[in-house]
Amino acid sequence: MKTVINEQERRNFAREVESKLHDKLAKCYQCGKCSAGCPVNFEMDFTPNQIIKMTELGMTDRVLNSKTIWLCVSCNTCSTRCPKGFEVAGIMDVLREIAVNRGIESKTEKEVQTFHEVFLDNVKSNGRIFELELVGKYKLKTKHLFRDMFLAPKMIEKGKLKMHSDKVSDINQIAKIFKDFE
Amino acid sequence: MKLAYYPGCSLKGTSFEYEVSLLKILEALNIEIQEIPDWNCCGASAAHSLNHNLSVALPARNLAIAENNGFEEVLAPCAACSSRLKTAKYEMGLDDILKKKITDSLEMPYSNSLNISNMLEFLINVAGKEKIKSLVKKPLSGLKVASYYGCLLVRPPKVMKFDDPDRPVSMDELVALTGAVPVDYSYKTECCGAINSLSKPDVVMALTGKILYDIKEHGADLVVVACPLCHSNLDVRQREIERKYAERIGLPVLFITELLGLAFGFSPEELAIGGHMVNADKVLKKIS
Question: Of A140, B17, B176, B200, most Cβ neighbours within 10 A?
Fold first, then answer.
């Protein structure tokens, strides 16, 4: 994978990210505080500060195909602690959205991406989350049919899993929101 | 003042105990709330992970309906929902173009003026500590309680504008009002893994395990939370974490509303405490 990108491409990518982020990549001076406090850093291929620098350098492919952007849980520890007030958690949202818009499917963290997609589909069709349907569809898509299934009987016994959906009445308005913004 | 209630999906499903106990304590506090008519899902982490505009537009519909029904204040007990509602308000305050697009799409007037409270904010700022204290009929003396805040009640501070983002105290203060002893420990605001519970269970168990074992080591009898996602990871996944790390935890996880309810004199049954996966009977014997 090439790491030296042409200047035009570099600037275009950095500009696209900055305009969506409403923040400047150059603010980051690479202190690494974001990465030190990140609760999921142990699973990432690039630390958050590396992702910021790589974005600035226009390493588009590596950034958009990184595990990091999908592993970020948006806990906002990084943004809260950043001495420059940079939107560290925000850049992960922006990069995920750009990856999705470019049709890039995460090779390593596909399940995270799939879960988000199935979740939004559920909102689109019901207006609210119908948990049983959400979990069922997610399992069918990822073929992890039996993982976590041992939890189901006790959850049903405890009354935690509802068997019917509780839809929004004005579902047309929900459809319109998705049409206008999706 | 008319108080709007945004339950969100979890309080109507896997975290029904949170709603049951919330309604009980509000009854005792003599505070009336009304559910936002025909509310929709806030979009949660999925919307902001995939589509920024949608992540603002979905919560905005709820805020617009509330505003058009004459509400000034919204209670969103789910930390994730309150964070999405507050973020939508914050984003629309910064971005007039997006706000206009959203109000055009919703075909509703909207001024973006509602005050949104998470559960802790509501209890402290709207209900008030004095009032809460005056309702404690059955002090939970001797009970050692760890408050787990997680992420979204306090972060990011520029949006949440509540408590200290690194060392929050509000839930510990509520715990102290009940007569219980607040337990100090290291991971009050560490993330439990949240929404990745189903897609990255191993990561979530590592994060949640770290929090639960630390609480255990600091001698707590139980944990209180104010977020259905935190509750789900700490309670529903606890048995599995014990098996994975071959060490018992046995920590009941209660919603803050349940702890207050117990101190107000409601029974565990009235507060739906039996709905949790980790049985709390043994611990609750300490106060009966």
Answer: B17
Q: Return the half-sphere exposure (C-beta side, CA atoms, 13 A cut-off) of residue A9.
A: 11
How far A50 CA sits from the closest chain B CA (Å)? 20
The tens digit of pLDDT for each residue in B160-211 reads 999 999 999 999 999 999 999 999 999 999 999 988 888 999 999 999 999 9
Is residue B116 helix, strand or coil? strand
* Single-letter code of the amino acid located at B31: I
| Per-domain residue ranges of chain B | 3-119, 136-285
Which residue among B41, B45, B276 sits closest to A128, beta carbon to beta carbon? B41
- Domains (range + CATH), chain A: 7-101 (1.10.1060.10), 110-181 (no CATH)
Chain B, window 115-134: residues with a beta carbon less than 8 angstroms from a chain A beta carbon: none
Q: Which residue of B has its CA nearest to A74?
A: B45
CB contact under 8 A, A119 and B44: yes
User: Is A50:B218 a contact under the CB 8 Å cutoff?
Assistant: no
Q: Which CATH code is given to the segment(s) B136-285?
A: 3.40.50.11810
Percent share of chain A, pLDDT over 70: 97
Q: Which of residues 194-213 of B touch A (CB under 8 A)?
A: 194-196, 198-201, 203, 206-207
Is the pTM higher than 0.90? yes
